């Protein structure tokens, strides 16, 4: 499953988000907004915006929405994001550009903040992407990147390893680790602040774990034998409300300026 195939619709993204929505005790998006400390009238580019959950999954509307530009390679998700943001601000439709992070159709120095949340692990040429962020970022502006920790959802990843032979550590973090994010940002910016997010999940329904693992490329491609093995492995865990499967979500937000 290529990146393009993965995001033709929001099916895979939703399977993963379901785990966070159902078992999360903290709100990652609120955490990001608190760390960003938005200023009035900021111009913000949200690169790899997905369906725009960052802007809608918050308890109170944000004042900076009318300075927002959305960018994504998935036309489907970009349209969802545009519709979501339009519904949040009266008489406003954000600029939405179907484009790749490595070749942004944006002017130099145009944004106070460039966001790239949980998206650089899909990108082959990550140094080039960060150079693009620097180019479109105004003097004194900032770039915020997020990615998972290598030990994110460690128990679920162990199951994926046992059944599908998937990587033992978080796939996103293997492809783009927090330390790599820091290294790339430090090449272009004077300071990089690192914010760690952690949340414990008590998962009471084995189906949610299966859906999560099957949303990734190896799980998605698994044949019926492997899928049965996964079901059996989950049965052995005897997961229930009384006996939840406990795992920890760990992500990092890095803000450079
Ligand atoms: C895991 S989602 C994250 C969405 C959103 N940023 C969030 O945190 O909720 C990754 C997003 O990156 C987009 N994407 C993948 N490769 C891209 C690229 N080269 N340029 C721009 N967007 C890309 C995908 O289409 C998808 O919407």
TrEMBL record:
Name of the featured protein: Class I SAM-dependent methyltransferase
Gene Ontology process terms (BP): methylation
Species classification: Bacteria, Pseudomonadati, Pseudomonadota, Alphaproteobacteria, Hyphomicrobiales
Species, as recorded: Pseudahrensia aquimaris
Any one GO MF annotation of this record: methyltransferase activity
Keyword field: Methyltransferase, Transferase
Disulfide bond in keyword set: no
Domain called Methyltransferase type: residue spans: 46-145
EC number: 2.1.1.-
PANTHER family: METHYLTRANSFERASE, N6-ADENOSINE-METHYLTRANSFERASE TMT1A
